[in-house]
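subagent[fold] <- orchestrator: predict structure for attached chain, return tokens only, no commentary.
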Amino acid sequence: MADFDFDAWRDLAVRDPEAYFRERDRAIKAFIAAHPESAESLCVLQAHIDKLRALSGSPLVAAREMARLMGQRLESLVRHLNALNHHTAELHRLAQRAGR
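subagent[fold] -> orchestrator:
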């Protein structure tokens, strides 16, 4: 993403919305193709995002909904990380006891 040019994408969206959406779709498909191990989940996520955008009624509402979705996913990751840390600490304690 280091080569992502936000200004160029914004200008394309203003100048030629149809070309913007074609290029957007191409970029999304290229990203998914570059990550074959995650392609199925990325396609599901993108379909969810596209549906959310279509049903939101405005870009602002869509952005808020996507932020909410990201927040939910991050909270889930935090819960999983905390559980993993707890189990790792427990395994470490058990390994120390077994080593005595």
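orchestrator: received. Logging for downstream: The chain has a mean pLDDT of 94. The radius of gyration is 21 Å.
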